[in-house]
Amino acid sequence: MYEGPDVPPATQLAGRLLTENIRAAAEEVRARYVARHAEYPADWQAASGEVFSVAHVTAEELDRMRAQVLEVMAPYVRLDAASRPAGALPVRITLDLFPWFGPEQAQAAAERMPEDGR
Could you write out the DSSP letters of every residue in 68-94? Predict the structure, then answer.
């Protein structure tokens, strides 16, 4: 989002700082919830939680996965209060899609790919 060869260094830095501030705020929300988990109604306890997983994908598949997850989330991102059902409350959603490998592994995998990309 704030990276790339055409993005000025100051904009890249500002983007990284903004991202880290958002991440820190999300962690505060998570820590507060974990500390008070038992105080929430049973339905919120059952619906809330964390998911930890790994996917073995290509860059194209990862891009498609991100788009699909965002598509699933889109109907629930109701910024206009009038569009929310009664009882709707804000929920922090954090989705990380980071490579669990180094750049050299990506390069080696690309070199091993057949010319047809399969």
Answer: HHHHHHGGG---SGGGSPTT-------
The answer to whether 18 and 80 are in contact (CB under 8 A) is: no
pLDDT tens for residues 29-50? 999 999 999 999 999 999 999 9
Query: What CA–CA distance (Å, rounded) separates 9 from 1?
Result: 13
DSSP per residue, the chain: ---STTS-HHHHHHHHHHHHHHHHHHHHHHHHHHHHGGGS-HHHHHH-----------HHHHHHHHHHHHHHHGGG---SGGGSPTT------------SS-HHHHHHHHHHS-TT--
Amino acid at 23: R
Which pTM does this prediction carry?
Answer: 0.77
How far apart are the C-alpha atoms of 75 and 69, rounded to whole Å?
A: 11
